[in-house]
Fold each of these.
Amino acid sequence: MTAPLLKISHLQKRFGKFQALKDIDFEIYPGEVFGFIGPNGAGKSTTIRVLLGILKANGGSATIFGEDVWEKSVDIHQRIAYVPGDVYLWPNLSGGEIIDLFLKMNGEHHSEKTDALIKEFGLDPRKKARTYSKGNRQKVALIAAFSTNADFYIFDEPTSGLDPLNEQTFQEHVLQLKSQGKSVLLSSHILSEVEKMCDRIGIIREGSIVETGTLAEMRHLTRTTIDVQTVQPLSELATLPGVHGLTTKHGENHVSLAVEADQLTAVMSYLTTKQLVTLTSTPPTLEDLFMRYYESPNDARTADGK
Amino acid sequence: MMSGQLFKRTGLLIRLNLKRDWTKILIWTVTLAALLTAIAAKFDGIYSTQKAIDSIVTTLKTPAMVSLFGAFTAKAPYTTAKIFATEMVVFMAIIMVIMNIMLAVATTRGEEDDGLLELVRAHAVGRLAPLSAGVAELTGLNLILGVLYGLGLQLSGMPGADAAGNWLIGFGLAAMGWLFGMLTLLVAQLADNASETTMLSYAIFGVMYIARMSTDVSDPRQTWWIPFGWIEKMSIYQKNDWRPLLWMFLFGLICAALAATLNWRRDLGAGFLATRQGRRTASPFLAGPATLLWRESRMVLLAWTVGNLVLGAAYGSIFNTIGDLAKSNPMIKQLLGASALAAANRVIVKNFIAVLAIVIVVVALIPAVQTMLKLVSDENKGYLHQLYATATSRWHVWASYTVFALVEAVVVFMAGLVGMYVTGLTVMTDPIKWSTYWQVFLAYVPAMLVMVAAASLLAGWLPKWRYLAWVWVLYGFFSLYLGSLIKLPVWAKKFTPLGFVNKVPIKAIDWSTSWWLLAITVLILVLASIGYRRRDLAQ
C-alpha cells in the first residue's frame, strides 16, 4: 500500500488538568474518505484543530503529507481545505468577498467552478455575513473549500445546518473528490452520510480511538440480528456460544437473537436442523455499532448488546 | 397583563447581568472611588496655603486650562475644595462616560451580536426585560458610585468643603454617567451591531466635549446647551445648585424612554441604520490578513483620524485667545516691547501644546490598542480559525494586526497635530511653525510604540489579561493629564513610557530616551511574536 497521507500516532492534548486527547491513532491514505465519528466532547474537533496547527499537541505525533502539522502548518495548508462545524465569518464582509478571500489565501482564484458552486448551493453572495443563517455560513465555507484545488479536505460536521437538498449536493461533491483520488476526513453525526460515503471509519470516545476499519470489518466485530421461526422448538439455542439477547416473539418457535460474527456458521447450522419457516437476518448498521461504543463506558465489546 | 408581558423576569436578567459583569463593576467602582477619595485627601497637602491656591486660580482662569477643565466659575474667597471641584469634576465625568458607554454596549448590542439575547428571549422573558435589566444595572452602578464618591469626599475633609457640595459632586458624576449610559442604550437601538454602537456613542460624546470646550472659552453661558456641559454648572461648594442634576435626569429619562420605544418596535438583530448589501466578489485588493484587517477597520481608523483632527483643530482655534498676554494686560506691550511680547506669547502657546499633546496621544492610543486586542477577540469569536486553515502563517496574522495598530497610533496622533497646526495657522497673527509640532510628534511616537507593543505582548502571551493594556493607557492619561495639578510624584508618572518623554516643545527632545524606547519596542515585539506563534488558539 502507498504511504499514508495523514498519520497520527499516540496523539495527546491536555487543557490544564483535562486530558482532551489521550491516545489518537489513525491513518488516512490517498484517495480515501475517512469517517470520524464519536459522541459530543469525545475530541473530534480537538483532533482536527491539532491537525490544523491551531492547537499544539502535548505528545505523540501527527503528520500530513509526511510533514509535522505544527512545524510545517503553512506548507500543509497550501494543499488542504477545511470546513468547520460552526462557521464564523467577518460580519461586515459579504459572502462573495469571503469566498474569494479564502481562495486567495491559498493562492487560488475565483473561477467558473466557484460560480457554479454558488449557484448549486443557492447562496446569495452579496449579503453581508452578519445576516446569514448558520446554513448559509456553512455554504460559504463549503463553496470556498470545494472550489479549492486541494489534496486533502477536512470537514468537521459540515452539514449540520444544511437542508436535505444542500446535503445531497455536499455528498455529490465529496464523491466527486473521491473519484478524483483526493482524500477526505469527514467528521459527522449523520451516520447515514458516513455509511454512504466513507471507505474507512474511526470511532473516538473520551479522547481515544476505540475502533478503526472499514464498515465491513467493523460489522465483523459485532453481531448480526436474526429473526427466525422454526418447526421444531429451539430449546438449546440459549446455550450456544455467541448468542445474545434471545427474545421470544409472537407465534410458535419464533424468536429474535443477536449472534456474534464468528459463531454465525454454528448457529445457522443449528437453526437449519430445526427446519426453518422464516428467517431474516439484518447486518448491524453503523448506528448499532455506534450505540455500543456510546453506551458502555469501559469496554464496548464485552458488554451485552441488549 | 401588558406590563407583565413586557417586563417579565427582569429581575432574573439583572442577576444574570451582574453575574457576568461583577468583576468589571467591582474594578471600576473600587478604582474610581479610591481615585477620587485619594486625590481629595491629598489636595489639602497640595493647596494648603492661600498663596498656592491663588496662584493655581490664575492658572485655571487661563483659556488653556478652561478648555481642559471647564470654565472657572468659583468666586473668592478661594478654598482648596473649590480648586478640587474645578480640576476634578470634568476629568471624572469623562471617565464615568467611558465606563457607562462600555457597559451599556456590552449589555445590549454585545449580547445581541453574540446571539445570547436570542436564547434569552426564547424563554418566558418580557420583550423589554433585557433592556430594562440593562437600565437597572447602569442605574445601580452609577448610584453606588455616587454614594461612594460622596462618602469618600466626606471622609477626606478638604478645607472649604461642605456636605452638600460633597454629595453634589458624587451624584452629579453619577447622573452624568447615567445620562450617557441611557444615551448609549438609545444609540444601541439605532445601530445594528456593537462596534457601530460604540463608535456612534463616542462620536456623540466627542462632539459634546469639543462643543463645551469652545463655548467655555468663548461664552460659558452657552455651555448650558450642551448636556455634557451641565456637569460644570453645579456651582459646587458655592450655591450648590442641584438643577443640572434634574436636567441630566430628565435627559437620561428621555433617552431611556426612546430606547424602550425603539426596542419594542424593532426586530431582534435589526437596527434603524440597516446593513447594506455587499460586493458579489472580492476586490483584487482583499487578498490576505493585512488587507482583510484594513477592510474591516478602515472606517474605525477614519473615524478616529477625523476625530483627533477635529479635537486638535478645536484646541488650535483657541491659540489666539491663549497666546495673547496683551488682552488681559494692555500695559504689558509697552513694558516688553512688541517682539518680546510675541516671544512670550509663543511660550505660553507652546506650554499649552505640551499639555495638549497628552490628550492627543491618548486619543491616538485608543484605536491602536483596540486593534491590537482585536487580534484576541477575533480569535475568540472564531474568525481566525478558518484563516489559519489556509496557507496563512501565525506570524503573518500577528504582524498584520501589530503593524496596523502601530501605524494607527502614529496616523491618528499626526492627525491631531495637523488639526492643531492648521487652525493655529489661521487664527494666530504669529503662528507656531510646523517644525514645533514635528518635534512633539518625534518626541512622543517612541513612547506610544512601546505601549502598543505591550498590548501585542499581552495578545501573544497572556490573552486573558489583555485588558491590562487599557489600564496602562488610562493610567498614562491620568498621571499626565492630572499629574502636575495634583502634584503626583515624578516616579509615579514613570509607570508608563509617556512619563519619560520630555515636555516638548518647551524642552528639547531627549534623543537617548527616544532610542532606548525604540529598542524596547523592538524587543517587546520580538517576544510578542514568539508568544503568539507558540500558544494554542482559543477553542
Note: Chain A has two domains: 6-218, 223-283.
Amino acid sequence: MPVRIVNLKVNGVDQAFMAKPETTLLLALREQLGLTGAKRGCAQGACGSCTVLLDGAPVVSCLVPAATVDGSAVATVEGLADGQELSDVQQAFIDGFATQCGFCTPGMIMSAEALLARNPDPTADEVNEAISGNVCRCTGYAPIVSAILDAARRRRDRAGQEATR
Amino acid sequence: MLTEVHVPDDVSAAVRLLAGGATAIGGGTCVLPWLNDYASPPTELVSLRRAGLSGIRLHGDTVEIGAATTLAQVEHDDRLEDLNAVVRSIASTPVRNLATVGGNLFARQPHGDLAVALVALDARVTLVDETGSRELPVEELTNGAGLVTTVTFELPRPGTFRYVKAARRRYNSASLVTVAATVTEEEGTVTGARIALGGVGPRVIRAHAVEAALVGQELTADTVRAAGEAGRGEIEPADDAYASAWYRTRVFPVHLRRALLGH
C-alpha cells in the first residue's frame, strides 16, 4: 500500500507526516500530530465536530483525504489562543456557558471564527446559518449563538479602541 | 478500503487513471462518507483538486464553470446571482467549501439541488475520456459517461429563473421538493418553460408535462394548479427519512406554485 509524505502548515508551523490512502485530514491531525481538538463524530460530514480551517475556509476534515491537501495551511482550535490568552470566541463561549459536554465546541468555534473573519457584525440568523453544519446534541444552541454574537461585539469594540488610540 | 488516492496535475492524467478503473472525487463529500466505514468500494480514488478544473469564467452571457469549482465559490460569485441562492440551500458551509459543481451532478437524490437548477438552465457539460471530448446536456448525463471538465450555460434573462427548495429545516437539509424553472413570458403569456424537479424521484426530473401545460397560458393560480396536476404523473417520489412519498406528492403542487407565482 503506497504511503506518502504529506506537508501541511498547521497553526503556522510546518509539519510533515506519513499518510496512508485512507488517512483523512482529521485522522492525521488527531493521530499523527496529536491535535485532538477536532473530533470524529459521524465521519459523514454531517455533524461538523471535525471542522477545521483549510486555507482559511471551514471544512469537515473527516471527508478530506490527507494526500489531496498536501501543501495547504490548516488552522485548528489549538492554534487560536495567544499563549494563555484565549481568542474572543473561546472566551465568549466560556463566559456565556456555551459548552455543555464540549464535544461540538471545537467545530462550533472554528465555524464561528470563519464567520467573523468574513463578517464582523453578523445577525443572529447569519450565525445560525454559519453553524448549521455543526450539530450540538446537548441542544445548547441558544447560548452558542449568543456567545458568537458576544465575541463579534468584543472584537468590534477592541478594533474600535485600537482605531481611536 | 482505500488502496490509493491519486492527485493528478492535469486532465489527461486524470482520464488515464479513471480509464484504469479508479473513481473520481471532487470534494469527496458524497464518496468519502461511504468509504469512512472502511468497507465500501471503491478502493482507488482520483482527486480532481489539482487537475486545473477550478474557476468560473464569463464570455458575454455564457458562463463556464470548471467541474472542480467548489459550491462555496459559486455561492460568493456576484455574477451568478441566481445560483448564489441555489447553492446556499445545499448542505452547510464546511461541506460547500469542499463539494464541487461537477460532483453535485452525481449526488444522489434527494441531494443534488444544483443539478436541478442546471437542468432548468439547459446547462451542458464537457466530457473527456480517452477517445476525446464531447458535449452533453446535463439532463442526459449518466454515471460513467466520462470525466466532466466544465459546465456551461447561458445566464438567464433577469427575472426568468425561479427556484424553491422545500426542506425540513431552513438550512442544511435534504430536499423534500425542489423546483427550478426558467420561464419566459411575452405580454403575460408563457412563451417558454424549462422546469426541473428534485426530491421527487430517483434522479432529477425534467417536468415536460408541466412545461406543456404552461406554454401559451397566463401564469395564474388556475393554470399553475392545472400544471401541477399534469406534473403528478411524471414524479416518482420515494419514502425516506425526510418525508414520505405521499407527503411529497401532496405538497409538490404547492411548491410549484410558490416557485412560479411567488406565493
Note: Chain B has three domains: 4-47, 56-154, 161-261.
